[in-house]
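Ligand: NAP. Inputs:
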Amino acid sequence: MRPARGVAVLGSTGSVGRNALDVIARFPDRFRVSALCAGKNAEELSAQARRFRPPVVCLSEERHGSRLGRLPRGTRVVFGEEGMSEVACSGETDIVLAAAAGVTSIRPVIAAARAGKRIALANKELLVMAGKFLVGAARAGGGGILPVDSEHSAVFQAIEGHRKQDISRIILTASGGPFRNRTFRQMRNATVGEALGHPTWRMGAKISVDSATLMNKGFEVIEAMWLFDLPPDRIDVLIHPQSIVHSMVEYRDGSLIAQLGVPDMRIPVGYALSYPERLPLELPRLLPHRMVSWVFEPPDRKSFPALALAYAAAEAGGTAPATLNAANEVAVAAFLAGRIRFTDIVRVAEALMAAWRRGGRPATLKDVLRADAEAREEATRIISRMRRPHKP
Ligand SMILES: NC(=O)c1ccc[n+]([C@@H]2O[C@H](COP(=O)([O-])OP(=O)(O)OC[C@H]3O[C@@H](n4cnc5c(N)ncnc54)[C@H](OP(=O)(O)O)[C@@H]3O)[C@@H](O)[C@H]2O)c1
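Predicted complex:
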């Protein structure tokens, strides 16, 4: 039997990270935890370390280390980007589950891809920001990028065994989020609580807000471009509120091949870890005969301008997607902190995209990181001039 594969879980205390640990715990003969990495939640990280006994854990900053408490004997602690790179590239690690929020893991994940590790990618922002460099590193390393996002996992499964030239287009499905039937104006006073109330998936705060603006779906279009090497005009989006059909691929003979399943992240996480095998996951099954109706409708682009912004960034290429991603991240954080209105998120992103100047293609990752830093600064400046919303 093959030895258990070492998984470094970046973002282990988050929603995807916890789902991944649940899968790993079910299959101790197939997987072992080679590292756990979190931002600042030292208490949960340390509880996870006591359960999974990894050789090393990583926190974003040393100042959080004092809250780690008791760790199993032999578990080392490392910090920051350097620590994350060390654990992602270590000989103990075969698979890196990239599920840390934001883009701070970009260099460690690229280094791991170049070192030949399999990248099980949840963190779509990394591809949005620096797709060219991450895909290039994975090609050079040979370990591959396996999608964890349910939509991209669905597409990955629907294109297996097919020829690329036979694909007409990809259709990414979207639940539509909590504001599916509202106009842009009606979303103006949406509260944080409402924005976090995703109808079908339980996720971290940032991606829940991105799902409510549909920026998440826009980012998924860019993610799909990089993963499946298709231009944005061959990637469509359909609203499917039931979140059962996770995405579809249309072929030139008119056939549509889709992947269906209950909305449970353990399924795509498990597949990204175990590919090409499928894990005998004992989860509630999808019962098609119990489905009353499956609805598919085009997105309302007027009410959800984030989608058009993401398509425009995808078409423009260069540092445009990195700029959009940075602006959005700063604006979502400001919304979650009660600093701006829900509809201001897209306003900030629009302002940054309007100011974005087409330059040459980014030659190095440093160019992308510079564009990211500048966009964050500018977004912060724009937000500081916005009127704080009244408390409802
Ligand atoms: N949730 C989903 O179902 C889902 C589906 C598809 C894709 N994704 C993508 O997966 C990623 C994670 O989403 P999530 O919902 O799991 O987010 P989440 O629940 O907010 O968790 C984020 C994780 O990242 C960690 N983190 C934050 N800053 C960090 C840093 N500087 N260094 C290392 N770790 C850091 C957090 O640690 P602390 O707890 O210590 O802050 C936490 O473990 C996102 O890119 C999202 O778009 C998520």
